[in-house]
Amino acid sequence: MTAVPSSLLRDLSALLGPKGLISDADRAPYERGYRYGAGRAAALIRPADVDQLRSVIRYCHAQDIRFFAQGANTGLVGASTPDDSEEQILISLGHMTAIETLDPLDRSMTVQAGARLSAINAAAAPHDLFFPIDLGADPSIGGMVATNTGGSRMMRYGDVRRNLLGLEVVLPDQDATLLSNLTGLRKDNSGLDWKHLFVGTSGAFGLVTRARIELHAVPRRTAAALVVPQTQAAVPHIIGLLENALGDSLTACEGMSRRAMQAAFDHNPALRRPFGGDIPDYAILVELGTSLSDRIMPDLDGILVDILGSACEGPAALVQDVLFGRAADFWAIRHSISDGVAAMGQVIAFDISVQRSALPAFRAAAIDLIEREFPQLILCDFGHCGDGGDHFNLVWPNDIGPAREDRAPMIARLRTALYDLITTEFHGSFSAEHGLGPYNQGFYDRLKSAPERQLTAAIKDRMDPKNLVGNIRFERGSLSPAPPPTA
Amino acid sequence: MTAVPSSLLRDLSALLGPKGLISDADRAPYERGYRYGAGRAAALIRPADVDQLRSVIRYCHAQDIRFFAQGANTGLVGASTPDDSEEQILISLGHMTAIETLDPLDRSMTVQAGARLSAINAAAAPHDLFFPIDLGADPSIGGMVATNTGGSRMMRYGDVRRNLLGLEVVLPDQDATLLSNLTGLRKDNSGLDWKHLFVGTSGAFGLVTRARIELHAVPRRTAAALVVPQTQAAVPHIIGLLENALGDSLTACEGMSRRAMQAAFDHNPALRRPFGGDIPDYAILVELGTSLSDRIMPDLDGILVDILGSACEGPAALVQDVLFGRAADFWAIRHSISDGVAAMGQVIAFDISVQRSALPAFRAAAIDLIEREFPQLILCDFGHCGDGGDHFNLVWPNDIGPAREDRAPMIARLRTALYDLITTEFHGSFSAEHGLGPYNQGFYDRLKSAPERQLTAAIKDRMDPKNLVGNIRFERGSLSPAPPPTA
Q: A152 and which of A134, A484, B42, B145 could share a cystine (Cβ 3.0–4.6 Å)?
């Protein structure tokens, strides 16, 4: 590859003007990831608009300079921060954040890629609408497209893909080709719906510059309960029961293991403690929500009491106990888990999914594996059991075993063993909703089937013939620009 | 290209056994399309399984023989029938129709590509589940994937894409590569979700052999009304009002123009006639449906009466009149339109969509165009106004103007004028839910943007390097096998 030219900053400044460059003093928050990834970029820029962005990409292509886009830098797989080479240009979308159109009648909105989830929802709120991806973080829409974020209410509203009506993308080719379809049609089968190529592919096929998204009615009322299952095996049956009874009013089923809840209570003393005595082994936060008036769907609380009450009865009861309360109180527990677990020691995080009906069997097998081979670890898993997702997080207490810097080989062995169990035995995913990045590159290379990897690599070659964009590899070669494709 | 070898039938018989060939006497229903397309194949085969299918594709690749898959042959764009060359192999999926798995707890089903919608729903019914694509025809799931069918309840349940959890596909390459992901995970962002390449691309990228699909709860109760809007401009506002009030219980909004309803009544005397006097200019079939018990959502009829009653009141009333009745009676009118219109003369059909909020303006502009330039035509449009779709069908009465065989130039001019209006002025689609085929190839070539066509052609080259599969062209060259890609 060509070395980064000495004229780089001068050239970029000529393309973007002085406002387009991020100064060295401001580098830090751009170059370190939220959880993984830290490096150093050759330059950090912030284009004002798509034209400026395209001019930079044409320049990068001509000069063989690598680059990638960064939105809010809230990703969890290391894909939005530079590597250590000092050869990449970090393109912040921090100046491309406008909410461009909002059509309440069409329930859609067109936004620039740097617009954050919070800004989108603030603009939609006066119309009683929202973008239904429910997350702890506040990502940009471009990043949400690149990871196909799911979140806590995915079982009700779907992921980003499902709520994406259109996309505008700049390809990393010679012309910085602009692909655009922002018409927002609900129904259009006049050719390849190419936007799906850019969903969940980590920005490696092109840079999202605009998105048209679908909005939903804000639920006006909620009811919630913490459900303690009789056994772990009862969990999918409880979810099925709720789904059958509540239909689309069932907005969340979030599983929480005992140690995850304990970590939340220990860390956040302000939490209400719903359990009188011991914390149960597992509880499901069940939320019923609706935008319907109480003329149409009266008495949400009574509905939950009826359904869950009957599930407690009889010798084959699925449910051991139910605690009713305010949704906000239960969500506060759920949202305190991450920080609580982090306070316990070193977190070894897994963002996995299996079929919903296989979650109990997976948990049993994984717990068995941990107890047998990694008894020093504490399981604090939690997650979206309604859609088969589990943040299967383990904590290595600070005071047990070797120091952090000496744990790497055992953690690598743990990751390999667990991902093998998930993908081989349970046909699950090693990245349910965090997407692909340097963090899980090795698992992609090892666990995806060869035909799938080869197809992906071929499309990458077409989109990015010089292999300049992004932080993951879709081919067997190195991360540096590949030679021209030979086949 | 190589001519079809004289040993073709012998070779195919060796690969498939005698049961794998369809005899000459049985050709007719395979070689003529439901609405468009009729030709003659070099051979008609019916593989028993994926292995046989792959052996045929390897043979075709080695011999440069063109081929395509046919499911139920109910498509409306000529993509499932052979051309006139006698050079294509027609691969019927009529022996690959099994329902392989059904998991009621996971609400999913794995089926072979030839399984028909009716068979899928028959298997799901004992579990109170169904596949929510509501159509007049009875297509195979492979064909539904290839066209990304929508149907009458798309505004509630989404299209095939939204309800597709996994796919198995045979690529038309040297190895007949099998791409497969039937794990059915709701949440998996561990790489390119390649199944979307095969949705809505007319089988031109590969042959779907299995699909895993999502099932939904059957609505237990419905309520329905025919809503007569004050003006055409009120239609999207009425839909918005219903959507806000009814949420996901709003299962359909089907628009019907006066002449479309008249055609249904004239053709089918058994229909109940809800209108006392004149048929109104336009009516919307509104359906409320729910799988919820009446404990949770009581009094569906009362809900509709309340909402629509209040929309009739005041000087700014959106609604002129509402007729309440049985959903089945109203659907009978809707489903009699196609045959009724066909009985009026020559139907010139348009399967278009625009943004829902733009439908009134589009209809006004299109009606103006017809009255000005094609006054002999009668507009009988109907369709899914809840998602912006409209079957903008025109009838040329048999007794007006030149004979059918002499009308082609004027029909071509009409198509060009209308599609230009739809795509240029209203940013709409020239194929909303019928997909791509020889019938609309010319409009694809002319109306899709160059970057979109070029990207599609590049992916086609990768999937099908000899350009052997399917009945549409994704490149500028001819339908015959292209030379090896040069760039």
A: A134
Which residues in B lie closer than 8 A to residue A435 (C-beta atoms)? 189
- Dihedral sign of CA atoms A475, A427, A261, A384 in order: positive
pLDDT band at A478 (very low <50, low <70, confident <90, very high): very low
Residue B149: other Cβ atoms inside 10 A: 26
Q: What share of chain A is helix, strand, coil (3-state, %, to 5)?
A: 40, 20, 40
Here the ipTM equals 0.94
pLDDT at res. B107:
95
Task: Tell me the domains of chain A and their CATH numbers.
Answer: 8-92 (3.30.43.10), 99-217 (3.30.465.10), 221-425 (3.30.70.2190)
Q: Which residue has tokens 């001819």?
A: B478
Residues within 8 A of B (CB atoms), A 342-371 only: 353-357
Measured in whole angstroms, how far is the alpha carbon of residue B245 from the centre of its chain?
A: 29
Quick check: A155 and B186 CB within 8 A?
yes
Interface of B with A in 385-414 (CB under 8 A): 387-389
Length of chain B: 487
A–B: how many Cβ contacts below 8 A?
258
Average pLDDT over residues A364-385: 96
Residue B103, class by beta-carbon neighbours within 10 Å (0-12 exposed, 13-18 middle, 19+ buried)? Answer: middle
Residue A136 has pLDDT above 90, yes or no: no
pLDDT tens digits, B396-417: 998 998 998 899 999 999 999 9
Give A101's strand partners.
A110
DSSP state of A132: -
Helices (H), B345-387: 359-373
Compute the distance between CA of residue B451 and CA of residue A267 in angstroms, rounded to an integer: 53
| Sequence-ordered list of residues with C-beta below 8 angstroms from that of A345, at least 6 positions apart, any chain | A378, A395, A396, A397, A398, A400
A258 is written with which tokens?
Answer: 């005992």
d(CA A370, CA A414): 8
Supply B97's token pair. 């129709």
Residues 59-98 of B with CB under 8 A from A: none
Residues 214-253 of A with CB under 8 A from B: 217, 236-237, 240, 243-249
Judge: A455–B295 Cβ closer than 8 Å, yes or no: no
Closest alpha carbon to B75 in B475, B433, B473: B433
* CA separation for the pair B178, A452 (Å, rounded): 10
Distance, CA of A144 to CA of A147 (rounded, Å): 5
3-state DSSP assignment of residue B379: strand
Strand order in the sheet with B319-325: B319-325, B221-229, B282-290, B250-257, B382-383, B389-391, B351-353
The answer to whether the CB atoms of A159 and B187 lie below 8 A apart is yes
Taking the C-alpha atoms of residue A228 and residue A414, their distance in angstroms, rounded to an integer, is 29
β-bridge partners, B284: B227, B255
- How sure is the predictor about B297, in pLDDT bands with cuts at 50, 70 and 90? confident
Kindly state whether A51 is in contact with chain B, defined as any CB-CB distance less than 8 angstroms: no
Q: Model pTM?
A: 0.95
CB-based contact A190 B248, cutoff 8 Å: no
Find out whether B261 and B279 touch, Cβ atoms under 8 Å.
yes
What rounded mean pLDDT belongs to chain B? 93
Residue B477: pLDDT above 70? no
* Interface membership of A294 toward B (CB under 8 Å): no
- pLDDT confidence tier of residue A197, bands split at 50, 70 and 90: very high
Half-sphere exposure of A88 (CA within 13 A, CB side): 29
The two tokens of residue A160 are 């980003």
pLDDT average, residue stretch B286-308: 91
Q: Give the pLDDT band (50/70/90) at residue A2.
A: low
